[in-house]
UniProtKB/TrEMBL annotation:
Keywords: Coiled coil, Cytoplasm, Nucleus. It comes from the Eukaryota. It comes from Macaca mulatta. Gene3D superfamilies: 2.60.40.790. Residues 1-89 form the CS domain. This is Protein SHQ1 homolog. GO terms for molecular function: unfolded protein binding.
């Protein structure tokens, strides 16, 4: 027999059951309902439901079949009109068989609050037992295997699957590692993994973090609608209908095997605490990936949850938050304290939405682990049992758990990673670097100003010196031109013509005048210069002055030309001496 896909809905007077039976023999089908029992058969499909409320056969029931979609739709009247049937989307629980009607069941499941503090056993003690000498043994020998898994109901799993599970959990040899030792090793591993540079990088460069914080997962919209609904109606029984399941999720629910869990008070408390731990990791993963799962999703969830990777046990809600905060700042890509606070806020909203929202999250985790090898082992140890167990939990208990989580205040100092000291030191270094940069910029500006002033002063000095040189050369030329010496003025010959030509060259007017005139006057007698006995020394003195003048005021090329002309002139004047 196949279990068909089905869906339940309700209005104040009727319960509607839609059953999808493609390729069924619709000509032969049976429907039976009485009280809280409902049965449907259409070969090869069979469906048996245990309803959360009672229905009655009074002639107003209706049924129809859509041949195109292959869906039977059956409307059944409620025994008490107006009654609200809670948990119609908890499909696994609805598939469970009705409880035994015997007067005294072999195993009875009772609420934890009903467990008496002291149980008195009236059965007579059998004194005739075999006695053995007392031998002192260690605690590990008394309990060689440690327990873990949902409600600490598992043990010995890793002895058989040690090779496969080394990549799933962080603890080595969990079957023989007690809870206290697990915690010590976990804390040491977190301290060794913490990277101050990575943390400070995310602390100062938080653009990506702010973008993640702005993302709104699906439960944000549902929570807002729930708050608006409660403000209007002041009723809490119908807000679970805000959360619906997809066809894939419904298929998952039908595949689970229904179980009953006998948990004592301590184990029950551990189950609730571990649920918070798992939801925190899931909320972080959903937010940082913005709802788009990737190959790292399974790693993120199990790494951030000490329940899943260290088989951790808890005593209060605060230590769950501390552990989660430490692991967020040690392992994933984005390590920021704001993400810890945001994940806590998201978890509170999910718990307040009720068990439907919690179940939806658990189904998503189950799918992620099922598609990852070898993380699927964690489904067998924890998630599958949570998906079945949560369907029977009262939403009021989850709301109380949300209030307990809301009252927890977490600070950076409580994480034990010296975050405040790191941030203070980093801010101090940043201020020093800013001050140094400011000082360097000021000194650079001052250096530029001083260098510009020095260059300006050098330019002015060079201008003044060049002006002085020009004035000196001009004065020397004027003296040479306007000298009142009768001896010089009385010289009549080619030398004066040459000197005047040289002065013209100094002024830059003509370059070849001296050469042309000297060539033209070659061979002419110097009659007026012969009577003067001192004409030779005077001419030499005048020649030296002319050389000095030309060297100071002319460029190299001009000076070289004039120097050659002077040599030619001296060569011509030598016989006259």
């Amino acid at each position: 027999m196949l279990t068909p896909a089905f869906d339940l809905s309700q209005d104040p007077d009727f319960l509607t059951i839609a059953i999808r039976v493609p390729y069924a023999r619709v000509s032969e089908f049976d429907v039976y309902f009485e009280g809280s029992d409902f049965k449907f058969y259409a070969k090869p499909y069979f469906l048996r439901l245990t309803l959360p409320g009672r229905i009655v056969e009074n002639g107003s029931e209706q049924g129809s079949y859509d041949a195109d979609k292959g869906i039977f739709t059956i409307r059944l009247p409620k025994e008490t009109p107006g009654q609200h049937f809670e948990g119609l989307n908890m499909l696994t629980a609805l598939l469970a068989p009705r409880k035994s009607r015997t007067a005294k069941p072999l195993v009875e499941e009772i609420d934890a609050s009903e467990i008496p503090e002291e149980v008195v056993d009236d059965e007579e003690f059998d004194w005739e037992i075999e006695q053995t000498p007392y031998e002192e043994v260690s605690e590990s020998a008394l309990n060689p295997q440690c327990h873990y898994g949902f409600g600490n109901l598992r043990s010995g799993v890793f002895q058989r699957l040690q090779d496969e599970l080394n990549d799933v959990i962080d603890i080595k040899n969990p079957d023989f590692t007690p809870a206290a030792e697990r915690r010590q090793k976990r804390l040491a591993a977190e301290l060794a993994k913490f990277d101050p540079d990575h943390y400070l990088a995310d602390f100062f460069e938080d653009e990506a973090i702010e973008q993640i914080l702005k993302y709104n997962p699906w439960w944000i919209d549902k929570y807002s609608k729930m708050k608006a609904f409660l403000e209007k109606s002041q009723e809490e029984e119908n807000h679970a209908a805000l959360v619906s399941f997809s066809e894939e999720e419904k298929y998952q629910l039908r595949k689970f095997v229904n179980k009953s869990y006998l948990l004592d008070k301590k184990a029950c408390r551990q189950v609730y605490y571990s649920l918070i731990d798992i939801l925190l990791a899931y909320c972080y993963e959903t937010r940082v990936t913005e709802g788009e799962k990737n190959v790292e999703s399974a790693w993120n969830i199990r790494k951030l949850s000490p329940t899943l990777c260290w088989f951790e046990t808890w005593t209060n809600v605060h230590e769950i938050m501390v552990s989660f905060g430490r692991r967020v700042l040690c392992y994933p890509l984005y390590r920021h304290f704001k993400l810890v606070v945001k994940a806590c806020s998201d978890t509170i909203k999910i718990l307040q939405l009720g068990k439907s929202a919690v179940l939806k999250c658990l189904l998503d985790i189950h799918k992620i682990f099922q598609e990852n090898d070898p993380a699927y082992i964690l489904n067998d140890l924890y998630i599958s049992d949570y998906c079945v167990w949560i369907q029977k939990v009262k939403s009021k208990k989850l709301a109380a758990l949300a209030e307990a989580l809301k009252e927890v205040s977490l600070t950076k100092a409580q994480l034990g990673l010296e975050l405040e000291e790191l941030e203070a030191a980093a801010l101090l270094v940043q201020e020093e670097e800013t001050a140094l940069k400011a000082a360097h910029s000021v000194s650079g500006q001052q250096t530029l100003c001083s260098s510009s002033e020095a260059s300006d002063s050098e330019d002015s000095d060079s201008t003044v010196s060049s002006g002085n040189e020009d004035s000196d050369s001009d004065s020397e030329q004027d003296e040479l031109k306007d000298s009142p010496s009768e001896t010089v003025n009385s010289l009549q010959g080619p030398f004066l013509e040459e000197s005047s030509a040289l002065l013209i060259v100094d002024g830059g007017v003509c370059k070849n005048t001296a050469i042309q005139e000297s060539d033209a006057n070659q061979g002419k007698p110097l009659a007026s210069s012969q009577p003067l006995g001192v004409s030779g020394p005077l001419i030499e003195e005048l020649g030296e002055q002319l050389k000095t003048t030309v060297q100071v005021s002319e460029p190299k090329s001009t000076t070289a030309v004039n120097h050659s002309n002077m040599q030619e002139r001296d060569g011509r004047q030598t016989p006259n001496d």
